[in-house]
Amino acid sequence: MYGDRRLSRRVGGNGGRRDGVALGFATQSDNVLPGSGIPAPAFRLRRRASARKRTVSGPRACWSRLGRVGPGTVRLVRSKNYAKDVLAGDWRRPRKGQIPEIAADSGLVAEDPSSGFCGAVVACEKDSVTLEDRFGKRRVFPLAKAGFLIDGKPVTLVRPVRKAGKVVSASGSIAVAGPLARVARESRIYVEGKHDAELVERIWGHDLRVEGVVVEYLEGVDHLPEIAGEFGPGPGRRLGVLVDHLVTGSKESRIAGQVDSPYVLVTGHPFIDIWQAVKPSVLGISAWPDIPRGIPWKEGVISELGWRGEPGEVWQAILRRVRTYADLEPALLGRVEELIDFVTDPPQGD
Question: Is residue 37 classed as helix, strand or coil in its secondary structure?
């Protein structure tokens, strides 16, 4: 409300109208109803309909139904003058460049952004891909354009193209097509436990079958010297042993030092358990956790990572994620290759 004489002076003497704006005002004496002493309501500023689309300008301040806006132009604000929502957009369309196409090779870790499901590729058909998460749960997704995320970036998964020519085994060696059955060698490879044996079979099974080498597990190395003696190593009958946590000063290193035979090779990796030989990235974790002494290592890992299931069940889920030698740590790869060479290609004189 405006009941100020200054307003009348500002408008001028044209009957209370200026630039299409009808103005009503009251003086100090007009602010009281005659004979009552009751203050009268001041008049509001009214704007003619014909003036709503006009531009009000001038050297002096102008008045509108919104109040005093200062010298210049009065503009009506409309919502359509704003640009579209800055947060709106299609995440599938990168700001620069094209969306890359990635072959859905076995073991590739991808995420479905719609459901948040993250897992490794275990199968790929013409129009779909199957992912398996770290708990062994599998889901099938269509091979849509920009339908997946890898390292947080949209990609298009495509069916891998099989290259003609030589076939490579999981260990990286040239696969032998249709190997003939043969009698197993007398030489053997011993590993500590069942999980070790299953991992060796997973990666080097083809190579071992071609060479006729049998892998057996010991369920521990506490009695390794006696076991090696009972095996009866000699020329043409060699024994290779893969030991967990074979580091200087460990119990395993002291036991291995008691085996003394040119026909026995004891070697090993530095990991506490064979699980650690699997690269953490294959399982979607940043690193294997450190488990304090006194806590069973496998159970401690399952609890620390929030996994579910017994150690045997969890190991099977881990094993399914391992596809090729590239999924394993080099510290294990070199030791197994060394053992295979030792039992299959003995020096002259054996």
Answer: coil
Quickly state the pLDDT bin for 88 (edges 50, 70, 90).
low
Instruction: Residue 274: name the closest of 213, 223, 217 by CA.
Output: 217
Confidence of residue 125 (pLDDT cuts 50, 70, 90): confident
Q: Where are the alpha helices (DSSP H) in the chain?
A: 5-11, 194-211, 224-231, 251-256, 297-305, 311-321, 330-344
pLDDT at 49: 45
If asked whether residues 139 and 73 sit together in one domain, one would say no
- Please, are residues 55 and 20 in contact by the beta-carbon 8 Å criterion? no
Neighbours of 288 (CB within 10 A): 20
Say yes or no: 113 and 240 in one domain. no
Closest residue by Cα to residue 134 from 9, 269, 337, 286: 286
| Interval 175-193 mean pLDDT | 83
Please state the three-class secondary structure of 96-131 as a single string.
Answer: CCCCCEEECCCCCEEECCCCCCEEEEEEECCCEEEE
Residue 114 has pLDDT above 80, yes or no: yes
Any idea what the Cα angle at residue 114 is, between residues 108 and 115, rounded to 5°? Answer: 75
- Residues 282, 220: one domain? yes
Whether residues 192 and 338 fall in one domain: yes
Confidence at residue 137, expressed as pLDDT on a 0 to 100 scale: 87
For residue 247, being part of any structural domain is answered with yes
Contact (Cβ atoms closer than 8 angstroms) between residue 245 and residue 238? no
Give how many domains the chain has, as a whole number: 3
pTM assigned to the model: 0.56
